[in-house]
Structures are given as C-alpha cells and as structure tokens.
Amino acid sequence: MTFDAIDQKLLQLLQNDSKQTNKELSNALNLSVTAVFERIKKLENNGVINKYVALVKKEKVDKSFVAFCHIKLSQHIQEYVVQFEKEVTNLTEVLECHHISGDYDYILKVVVKDMEAFREFMVEKLTNINHIGSTHSMFVISEVKSTTAIPI
Amino acid sequence: MTFDAIDQKLLQLLQNDSKQTNKELSNALNLSVTAVFERIKKLENNGVINKYVALVKKEKVDKSFVAFCHIKLSQHIQEYVVQFEKEVTNLTEVLECHHISGDYDYILKVVVKDMEAFREFMVEKLTNINHIGSTHSMFVISEVKSTTAIPI
DNA sequence: AACTAAAACTGAAAATTTTTCCTTTATGAC
DNA sequence: GTCATAAAGGAAAAATTTTCAGTTTTAGTT
C-alpha cells in the first residue's frame, strides 16, 4: 500500500500513543472522525499496524536486569539451527533473538530480575539448549534510549 | 505496589493485545467489567503500564534493514558521555541505545531501509556525533524473535 | 472541458465500550 | 460481633467506535 503524509503522521501518533481517541487524532490531523477511523482500519487490514500492546515498565515488575548475549552454535547444520531457534523462542526471558552477521551467530536480549537470576537463566535454561558452541554476555548499565517507534 | 495472580494475568494479556475490551478481559479473568477497569487504572496510575502503542511492521514501511552498532567513545569524560547520549537519542533511526559492560561502551539498534541507507546513516549521522572512538556493526540476517512482553 | 468511476471525506445515528456511582461482599483488626 | 478497608458487582451515564447514506475530491478518459 501507499502512504500519504496523513498516514505517516497517523502512524507516528499511534506508535507513540495508541489510546488516543479518534476525535483527538482527528483534531491533530484536521480530519473527520470517520476519516481517521477508516484510515486506521486500512492500516490494520494491510498489516502495517501489526498489533496494539501495553508497554510495562520493567522496574515495576522486578525485571530490571537486561543483558545482551552473543551466541555461537557448535555447528551450522540446519537441524541444529532450527532447533536452537525454536527453543530460544520459547524462553520468556528472551525478548529478542536476531540472527546476525559477524563473529557470533545470534544476539539475544534477555530480561530478568538481577544478576543472580541471570546466572540461573544461563545455567538452567540457555546453556541447556543443544548445540550452543559459545556465549558472550554484555550487561546493560543504563538504558539511554528505548522506543518501539519505527521512523516514518 | 503488589500484584496478585489476576494482575499478572491481566498484564500478560495487555502486553499481547491492548485492544481487547474490558468485557473480553473480564471473561478471560472471571471478573466483572468494573473490576477489570479498576485494576487497569491502578496499573496505569502506579506506572506499571507505561504507555499503549501501535506496533508497526517495519517491512511495510520500508525499513527492513536492522543493525546493531557497538560504539566506543574516544574518552569517558562526563561531558562527552552526556553529549553523545543526547545526540544519539535524537536520531530516529536509533530505536535503542544501551550503555553496556564489555569491550564497547554502547550498543545501538538501528532501523533503516537497506544497506545503502545504513551507510548513509553511519557517514552522515552517527559518525558526525563527536567523541566517538570506534564502531563495530552487526547486521541482522533474520529476526528469530521479537516481543515487547516482559515475563511476569 | 466534460464525464465517469473510485477513493476519501463528512455528519448523524446506532452500537458498543468506558466510566461513574452506589451497593454488596470479603478480610482482618479490635 | 462490629468496624474499617479493599475489592467486586450491577446498572446508569458518558464517551467512543462503528455504520450508514450522501457528498466531495481525485485521477483518468473521452
């Protein structure tokens, strides 16, 4: 699909606050409520808007510790790759897993309570997955920026 | 604040789909609509729920290229740190910036159109920021898992 | 320039949801 | 048992979403 300037603005607004009413959006965009409604539905139907979610502040739910883990597989057999990706996806502590270029195969973003919980996660969950060759972890000292808003 | 099992379930539900009506949530939780409403308001007021956002599929807005950039500052003077963090925060292509332990000072998640756009981003924006010592980029080959839902 | 079809817009009405208000229930302290 | 507090439920009110019918705009064709 194709976006005009209004769609772009609308996506920006919704990426920052999806609880705005169509009336508020219609004011911001100088459109009628119905026009806003229809544009949003179109963006949803075309899969541009994927889902709507509540973002939880991790400190408030006692998950303040964030780490990035690099992982290398022992061998790059397809079977191993598929199994690793499946198992890592099932770990709720792993918010993100990306297959990347470079020295390591994957980078994971892991969220847990504290360093001790991270140790447990590594020992009991992550390294229990088969075919992991080596890992290298980096700990987040402070979160400088974190947004879900894709530039549009 | 303190969470009971219902709050936890509620947060899980809202982290996965914030567009569910209170009636749907009340069914899932075996509660009245009002009770759900009040629990949500409490979670919002206590800052547990930070915001509600629309998640956009990056492929649909022509931002399919994701890279992680490691950055080392030339010197760790506070002034340099503050300035770097401020400037990097203003770059819309940078969705995340974390100050981390390890060989590098920061890790960034960058979203752009393609490799060519990434090159431009590096040359014209990122390395224009003062006090950057060195960088090292890793490109995402495939996104194995990506969620905003913190385990609760 | 006039015509047509499609897309986008508008305002009003209908349907649904959110929010308020008041009553009831459960829990723990005295 | 009584009181105080917190959580829950139901019903009504307020607000929002969604539908609908009709109009305007746009783009392409003749």
UniProtKB/TrEMBL annotation, chains A, B:
Which InterPro entries does this UniProt record tie to the protein?
Answer: ArsR-like_HTH (IPR011991), AsnC-type_HTH_dom (IPR000485), Dimeric_a/b-barrel (IPR011008), Tscrpt_reg_AsnC-like (IPR019888), Tscrpt_reg_AsnC/Lrp_C (IPR019887), Tscrpt_reg_HTH_AsnC-type_CS (IPR019885), WH-like_DNA-bd_sf (IPR036388), WH_DNA-bd_sf (IPR036390)
Membrane spanning stretches: none
Keyword Transferase belongs to the record: no
- Alphabetized UniProt keyword annotations: DNA-binding, Transcription, Transcription regulation
| Stored Gene3D superfamilies | 3.30.70.920, Winged helix-like DNA-binding domain superfamily/Winged helix DNA-binding domain
SUPFAM superfamilies (alphabetical): Dimeric alpha+beta barrel, Winged helix' DNA-binding domain
Listed PROSITE patterns: HTH_ASNC_1, HTH_ASNC_2
Q: Which residues form the signal peptide?
A: none
Where does the record place the HTH asnC-type domain?
Answer: 3-64
- UniProt entry tagged with the keyword DNA-binding: yes
What name has this protein been given in UniProt?
A: Lrp/AsnC family transcriptional regulator
Q: What is the lineage of its organism?
A: Bacteria, Pseudomonadati, Bacteroidota, Flavobacteriia, Flavobacteriales
